[in-house]
Amino acid sequence: MDIAQVKEELISLRKEIKRHNKKYYELDAPEISDYEYDKLMTRLKELEEAYPEFITPTSPTQTVGGSAKREAGKLVAHDVPMLSLQDVFNRADVENFINDAVEKLGDVEFVVEEKIDGLSMALRYVDGKFIQAVTRGDGIHQGEDVTENARVIDDVVQQLVDAPAYLEIRGEVYMTHKDFTATNERQEKLGLKIFANPRNCAAGTLRQLDSRIVRERRLSMFTFNLQKIDGIELSSHTDAYDFMIRNGIKIIHGYAVCKNFAEVWQAIEDIGKRRESLDYDIDGAVVKVNDFAQRELLGATSKFPRWAVAYKYPPDERETILRDIELSVGRTGRITPTAIFDAVNLNGTRVERATLHNQDFIDALDIRIGDTIRVYKSGEIIPRVSGVDKSKRPENSAPYKIPETCPVCSHKLEREDNAADFRCVNPNCPAQLENHLLNFVGRNAMDIKGLGETSIPKLIAEGFVRTVADVYKLRSRRDELLAKKIFGLVKATDKILAAIDESKKNPPARLLTGLGIFGVGSAAARDLIQHFGGLEEISGASIEQLQQVPDIGEITARHVKDFFDDADNLKILEELKTMGLTLEGEKKIFADDSPIAGKIFVLTGTLANYTRDAASALIIERGGIVKGSVSKKTDYVIAGEKAGSKLTKAQELGIKILSEEDFEKLLAE
Q1: Long-range CB pairs of 537-544, under 8 A, 24+ apart, other chains included
Q2: Which of 203, 313, 544, 646 sits in a 20 to 30 Å window from 210, CA-based?
Q3: Phi, psi of 17, rounded to the nearest 5 degrees
Q4: Which residues does the annotation mark as catalytic?
């Protein structure tokens, strides 16, 4: 791709993404799925990383509403300390807290409420208008500004009905079980990291630099404390809750007002009984003094307020026999082992399965089939294995190892260096078919308009497609597609079939991207085609020859080699060729003795005789590669006036630095 094409694609991507942002944020009428939007943003970020000189201040990667950039880690001083609570773990501890408060204060009223397992956040309002959101941070002095992300949380009220001069409230940001499941399914679909639990997901999401991610993951918030108010007098916690309810602020529901220890303990037990039916995680119950004046009298230590405690429910743990370990294959090929054991009752729920995460987890606990294992649910909806009673281990037991082949397609599994997960890298694995097809028809690959998240599952379910080659056989099954209304009526069906036909004209780099070879994205596919000329030439290359392509390391080269050594893959490629797809491209030939071909350059500072665009074009025309950041793989850094941190990093890594004069000499060679 030459510079003109890069600029043209950047302009087109930015325009399209901005249009979708407006439809999503302002009109509340999105036209495309989150998956399709993510692919657009990924392509834009990929181009801007490769050509940083083309980044503009108005790009969606630099503005709120797309990849909303804010200053990561910006710290804000606390108006009121956000202290943690002292934990107590048994009935006696709670009774001691109640008795101590009564002894010091006399007549005391307590409030008992759920302790949400999330991330604390304070909201600030001036004259009724929401102005700022701050995380707990160090709890005393400062927290992180997360205002832009808080604005897209539905539970954060933007304008109060009653308008005190100043209001600060504190709450807990959390994620419901439903939204957590949806987020992890989406992460898996995109080949991204799976979150361990809703709390971690909520915390990581709130600190995202992209407010769109926060909105699409659907964070929630309960408010549980009045931090400060000016202009309105409130005398108690329950008065504050009444004020919040009037203003549409979501408070912790189901709280109980109690007069003595017996009532407090009953309220704690009631919360414990219903926690399994909640659509969010709690990790205890909070007991608070209701009256604000009495809270002032009790005061606080340097860490905890003396007017509240958090009761932590004991984990509900049971012993059971591990009968089997079942392996499942995710949409991206990730292998997940699951423990199958004799059913036990945990917190009122019958449980007979629990995730074992990966081989590292199994090895750490030395879990073996037949073992007596301990299973628990500690305020979480997902059961977990905590350990093994090795004294009850059967004789002749053996350590468990995940097999070397995929349980679905029998393809050899791969485990990358320093990675915990095994993966099936066979793109034709039935368990991965939907994700594979979505990649194949996506914008960065064959770009077939109309085929996507809605139609592909239907095509698979009805048996129309089992490999990517079957996409090009759909025209011959037009009548069946219409009969089953897979794409809708005649006009919609013919439009999609025409898009499929048109995609046959795509260059081979797009086809190579769509094949789903692990580690081969659009940039790597382009480089491979330019180096070898076409897919048939790539199929005959050795691992050593593949590694001669810039940015193709040993692992990616091995995946490419394995793909083209597979007879089923070669059969699919032959089918695609027969149906008229282009497998051959234009091989770029550079002089063997060129000092630029295949070398990686980074530009920094201002050059006297060249714009950054012009210098990049000269490098690319001669077979060089221009990157936006310095790494160990960088061959040269061209440093102009006012060169910054890139120059410093290059010097630290011992990378050769070129002046503008050195660069011109290199061009002359």
Answers
A1: 537/587, 538/512, 538/564, 539/564, 539/570, 539/573, 540/564
A2: 646
A3: -65, -40
A4: 115
> H or E stretch including 522?
helix 522-532
Please answer whether residues 436 and 442 qualify as being in contact, where contact means their C-beta atoms are separated by less than 8 angstroms: no
CA 523, CA 46: separation in Å to the nearest integer? Answer: 8
71-127: pLDDT as tens digits: 445 888 998 999 888 888 889 999 999 999 999 999 999 999 999 988 899 999 999
- Strands 110-116 and 256-258 come out as antiparallel
pTM: 0.51
Alpha carbons 161 and 403: distance in angstroms, whole number: 61
Q: How much helix, strand and coil, in percent to the nearest 5, is found in the chain?
A: 40, 20, 40
* Inter-CA distances, 490 with 184, 353, 414, Å: 36, 47, 44
d(CA 440, CA 448) in angstroms, rounded, equals 9
How many helices and strands in the chain, by DSSP H and E? 24, 22
At residue 162, the pLDDT reads: 87
Strand 316-329 and strand 372-377: the pairing is antiparallel
**Distance (Å, rounded) from C-alpha 68 to C-alpha 1?**
28
Residue 1 is predicted with a pLDDT of: 63
Q: How far apart are the first and last CA of the chain?
A: 24
Helices (H), 130-260: 147-150, 177-189, 198-206, 211-217, 237-246
Query: In this predicted structure, what is the pLDDT of residue 289?
Result: 97
Residue pair 227/80 in contact (Cβ under 8 Å)? The answer is yes
pLDDT of amino acid 66: 37
- How far apart CA 210 and CA 66 sit, in angstroms, is 7
SS (H, E, C) 642-666: CCCHHHHHHHHHCCEEECHHHHHHH
Alpha carbon distance 491, 482 (integer Å): 10
pLDDT recorded at residue 391 = 94
Amino acid identity of residue 475, one-letter, is: R
CA distance 581 to 510: 11
Contacts of 9 (CB under 8 A, 6+ apart): 1, 43, 47
Q: Extract the residue ranges of the chain whose pLDDT is less than 50.
A: 25-28, 33-35, 64-72, 379
- DSSP 8-state code for residue 128: T
Reading the block at residue 74, the tokens are 């910006």
Are 307 and 295 in contact, with CB atoms under 8 Å apart?
yes
**Burial environment of residue 267 by CB neighbours within 10 A (0 to 12, 13 to 18, 19 or more):** buried
Distance in angstroms (rounded) separating the CA atoms of residues 528 and 520: 9
Answer for the pair 539, 563: CB distance below 8 angstroms, yes or no.
Answer: no
Residue among 87, 85, 86, 84 nearest 139 (CA): 84
Count how many residues are written for the chain. Answer: 669
Sequence-separated (6 or more) residues with CB below 8 Å from residue 491: none
Torsion of CA 299, 304, 305, 307, to 10 degrees: -120
Q: Report pLDDT for 72.
A: 43
